């Protein structure tokens, strides 16, 4: 139905020719914007409805009292169902540390949340299919879990700014008992709030993706980032770090790159680096952690992303999962 709507808008109302690059690009843009915003709204509503049953106090308690490795896994799972980006890093970090959540567990959440969340998953499954979406989900969680375990094992609590440990809470509040009407209203409000914050990223990301989809020379992209280039993954990570976006903005670009022949692992490592290791995020993180921990964070997460990229390229060559 959405594709038919895009056909109507682009080819009938706008009068563009499907055989031209402009027509192909505009159709890509209209179709993906409509599909993604509709799917996101539906998914955010149901995830928010589920989230309404878990108070911040209950969440902190679960993370603080589990075995440290189980805590890393639970934190990573929570990151998947939490639509946070780097703009939320500082208050989340302070809240977790203040609540007594171990540092490594906190980083498992902070690493996983921007890389894999319900927004990313909706877009991945709708644009790339279940095989790539599932592999990305598993590998993204693995990056968060392993990264958190490594950082936790290094005992870097003294690399957190002192003021973070001095933040005092008002004491845990009792979990509110919400009626179903209140939960539904909460979910609606979350849809409105989250979509209002990310729609610009969706538009910009899909706009760039549409240009790449219609105009970028496939041969050039395949030459420098294709399967045969052993440095392609490192190039993808290197290009991703200076950028700043969230999953909503990078996935449409990744779709266009993949369609143009860029290797699967290179494309997805570019995505991960953009949302998890961007320079603006490092500036934000500097407010709560010291340079040494930032450097370790970049090294650990960057190495894991590069490893995931090469793994995806190998698996794609072996099993043609991008086909």
TrEMBL record:
Organism: Halanaerobacter jeridensis
Subcellular location, principal: membrane
Family: Belongs to the UPF0718 family.
Compartments in which it is found: Cell membrane
Source species, domain of life: Bacteria
Keyword vocabulary terms for this entry: Cell membrane, Membrane, Transmembrane, Transmembrane helix
GO cellular component: plasma membrane
Membrane topology qualifier: Multi-pass membrane protein
Signal sequence extent: none
Pfam families: ArsP_1
Transmembrane feature ranges: 36-54, 74-97, 103-128, 135-156, 198-216, 228-245, 257-279, 291-312
Identification of the protein by name: Uncharacterized membrane protein YraQ (UPF0718 family)
């Amino acid at each position: 139905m959405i594709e038919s709507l895009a056909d109507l808008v682009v080819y009938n109302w706008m009068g563009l020719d499907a055989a031209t690059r402009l027509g192909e690009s505009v159709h890509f843009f209209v179709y993906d914007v409509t599909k993604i915003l509709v799917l996101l709204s539906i998914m955010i509503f149901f995830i928010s409805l589920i989230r309404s049953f878990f108070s911040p106090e209950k969440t902190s308690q679960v993370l603080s009292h589990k075995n440290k490795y189980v805590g890393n896994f639970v934190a990573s799972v929570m990151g998947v169902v939490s639509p946070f980006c780097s703009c939320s890093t500082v208050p989340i970090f302070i809240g977790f540390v203040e609540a007594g959540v171990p540092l490594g567990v906190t980083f498992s959440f902070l690493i996983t949340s921007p890389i894999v969340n319900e927004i990313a998953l909706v877009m991945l499954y709708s644009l790339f299919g279940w095989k790539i979406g599932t592999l990305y989900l598993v590998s993204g969680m693995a990056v968060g879990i392993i990264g958190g375990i490594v950082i936790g094992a290094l005992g870097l609590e003294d690399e957190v700014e002192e003021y973070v440990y001095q933040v005092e809470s008002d004491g845990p509040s009792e979990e509110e008992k919400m009626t179903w009407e209140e939960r539904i209203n909460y979910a609606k409000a979350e849809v409105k709030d989250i979509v209002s914050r990310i729609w610009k990223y969706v538009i910009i990301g899909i706009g760039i993706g549409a240009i790449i989809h219609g105009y970028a020379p496939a041969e050039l992209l395949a030459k420098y980032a294709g399967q045969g280039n052993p440095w392609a993954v490192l190039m993808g990570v290197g290009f991703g770090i200076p950028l700043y976006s969230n999953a909503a903005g990078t996935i449409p670009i990744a779709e266009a790159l993949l369609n143009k022949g860029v290797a699967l692992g290179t494309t997805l490592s570019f995505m991960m680096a953009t949302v998890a290791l961007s320079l603006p995020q490092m500036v934000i993180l500097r407010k709560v952690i010291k340079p040494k921990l930032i450097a370790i964070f970049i090294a650990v997460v960057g190495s894991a992303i590069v490893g995931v990229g090469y793994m995806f390229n190998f698996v794609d060559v072996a099993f043609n999962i991008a086909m």
